[in-house]
Amino acid sequence: MKVLCLPQKGELVIRDIPKPRLEAGHALIKIETCGICGSDVTAYQGINPTLKYPVEGIGHEGTGIIEEIGDNDKDLKPGDRVVLEPYVPCNECPMCKVKRFNNCENLKVCGVHKNGMMVEYFQHPLQLLYKLPDTLDSHSAVLVEPLTIGLHALNRAKVKAGEYCVVFGAGTIGLLTAFGCLNYGAVPVLIDVLQKRLNQAKEMGIPHTYNSTEGKTEDYLRDVCDGPLPDAMIDCTGSPPVIANMHNMVRHGGRISLVGWPHDPVIINTIRCMQKELNIYPCRNSNAKFPESINMVSGGRIPADRIITKMIGFEETESAIQDMIKNPINYLKVAVTINT
């Protein structure tokens, strides 16, 4: 079977490897589609701080069809279409014992710490498989995993109906987070430096967008919120200036979730964070959000056809990543067809 390998930075190679044999507690999945994540792009560039080369199969946003499966308590059977949760826990550490599987001390993320999903057949633990409804096509389903990241961040920040939530970053994760806000009855305010992305978000239904290169972001937020600053903030950029100034973007007692990965440690104003008694929540992957995300995507509560900007074949992946690096403004989510 074919697998898309990353032996070193800047090199993707399609190789033939043996098809996996089914192991107990797992299912063998014929992968249909896998999304390209920003972390796949940074892995290709050699600037992903969590990855070690070589990687046998990049990708962690996979969907597919069960080819083989043993007895299970999830009512899954051969022929079922599923989405795969890529965060593989040890099920033994203190975090796993309290069901915070995303924060497992020994977590292995597919395509980062272990083999990834851009492969024709993939073996995966039963506990990490979720059946897809017939109404949800495999290409749209690649948005399920990235949407869980936004939903987890919103839950960490305890965002609820009627609140204002400022989201920094109008890329795929930030945009999906904004739609998560709408789904919860909150009001998202989406901030970015790229006007084209903000225009796209506005066209898709995000009510408030602002280009921070214009300056006076805090004044804009007060204007939108009719006086006070937002109740919550989600940072999906990892940008040092955004994180360094986060205390200025929420009210006293505000809640902040940090989703984006900075390349290096960032200095924050702990004095202002203490004076405003802010609640700051670093976020790692997502936890128990796949069923909710599937319902959102299948229910049409996000414009999947607008967010998936390109669908490509297996052999086009490297050239697509190269163009994503050169022209990021032209892309949100790219879906790779593995098996048709």
How much strand? 25-35%
Q: What would CATH call the class of the largest domain? A: Alpha Beta
Continuous helix count: 11
What is the name of the CATH superfamily of the largest domain? Medium-chain alcohol dehydrogenases, catalytic domain
Shape: globular
Instruction: Please outline the major beta sheet.
Output: 7 strands, mixed
How many DSSP E strands? 17
Oligomer: single chain
Q: Helicity, in percent?
A: 25-40%
Instruction: Say what the CATH topology of the largest domain is.
Output: Quinone Oxidoreductase, Chain A, domain 1
CATH architecture of the largest domain: Alpha-Beta Complex
**Overall SS class:** alpha/beta
- The radius of gyration is 20 Å
Report the uncertain regions: none
- Order of H and E elements: EEEHEEEHEEEHEHEHEHEHEHEHHEHE
Give the count of structural domains.
Answer: 2
Mean pLDDT: 96
Alpha carbon gap, first and last residue: 14 Å
Descriptive account of the structure:
With 340 residues, the protein is α/β, with parallel strands linked by helices. The chain has 2 domains: 2-135 and 299-337, Quinone Oxidoreductase, Chain A, domain 1 (Alpha-Beta Complex); 147-282, Rossmann fold, CATH 3.40.50.720. Helix content is 26%, strand content 26%. The chain has 11 helices and 17 strands. Strands 3, 4, 5, 8, 9, 16 and 17 form a 7-stranded mixed beta sheet that branches. α5 (195-204) links the parallel β11 (187-192) and β12 (208-211). α3 (144-156) packs across α4 (172-183) and α3 (144-156) packs across α9 (290-298). It is globular. The mean pLDDT is 96.
